[in-house]
Amino acid sequence: MSGGGGGSPAAPSPALSGRGARIAGAAPGLLDEGFALYLADPFDRERNPEGVLNLGTSENTLCFDLIEERVSAAAAAAAYGYLIPAPYYGGINSKTWLYGELQPVHVPLFSEVRFWLFVYFCEVMFWLFGIRVRALILINPHNPLGDIYPAQLLKECLDFAHRYELHVIMDEIYMLSVYDDITFTSVLSLESLPDPERTHFMWGFSKDFGMCGIRVGVLHTTNHEIQKAVNQLAVFHSCPGPVQHVLSQFLKDRDWMDNVFFPTNKKRLKEAQKLLVDGLADIGVPVLKSSGGLYVWADFRKFLKSQTFEAELKLWQKLLDKKLLISPGKAFCCYEPGWFRLVFSNSVDKIYLCIKRLEEVLHTNDAEPVPNNASSLTKHSEQDHYLSLLLK
Ligand SMILES: Cc1ncc(COP(=O)(O)O)c(C=O)c1O
């Protein structure tokens, strides 16, 4: 174990790392300055004839009419780290490394406390870790657990982060895919935030609107320095104007959203989730109770030859050989072998086929079923127990 992860410094430190500040503070080029002037006062033949006439930007407006018609017809540095409860969506590792050279500092969650997060766990990992933790990333609704953070837990996490001057990145990409009758609390809906300058929200169209291909996401932050830094990084990721136009038209129809899309989507998610959960129960696979997201977190421990990640991967390979692709817990940095994520947002026939193929593999599996503690999937709060789990 290494020494303390930081502690509460006496004087508040700046909200951005040195690297972030350099990116945010990069001097705009001459062209950027000129373009900013144009944006502030753009020429328009009717509405602003005295405005700045832009003959500086290299774009072709000659065939806008033809294109418009066509389109509308179709339509921190290496030493820094972030705390993240594990298991978690593995894509976060590669992206935070790629953009920020950041290291994850896992907050391991265990089935003994039904993978529940207690803020105390974050505190323990913060102090155990030597690398400089600068952020806490939370996924809500959680991927892969399908859990939803109650408002109280959310507030405790934000208070904890504030105490140690950590940024909080709330990934709420499944926020509208909640199918249980449970209250979902978005960080944006809280009346006040302990540290608004370090609290950031992310969402995208991929999941809630089934539009993975549209590649449009949202970052909401009131921190202007971060906005500036992200704008610098986003030059090659801008959202094309026609896509923005189509999506803003789409979002305008609140009536259709509220009365048609969301209720139907919720009903279909609930039905599909039940179908998969019931099918899994029939073949002896328990799942963690979930309320949001497009998947369930299923317990295959008793089908492993040994309680190891090698055995988990062997089972995964057997399923692949049977032409069934589900995701092993290892891919989510889970600390216990034997858990798999299964996506249910699919048609009835595919869910049945999934159960059939699973049954064929599991029942011909030569593994001696190992007893597991699936019965202990109940939430309890013996926080000190956490240390003994970590040290096991
Ligand atoms: C929690 C979470 N965040 C972000 C993403 C990224 O989504 P996309 O790249 O499709 O917008 C995913 C995709 O699976 C996810 O599960």
UniProtKB/TrEMBL annotation:
This is Aminotransferase class I/classII large domain-containing protein. Residues 131-344 form the Aminotransferase class I/classII large domain. The keyword Protein transport does not apply. GO terms for biological process: amino acid metabolic process. It comes from Anas zonorhyncha. SUPFAM superfamilies: PLP-dependent transferases (SSF53383). Belongs to the class-I pyridoxal-phosphate-dependent aminotransferase family. Gene3D superfamilies: Aspartate Aminotransferase, domain 1, Type I PLP-dependent aspartate aminotransferase-like (Major domain). Pfam families: Aminotran_1_2. Keywords: Pyridoxal phosphate.
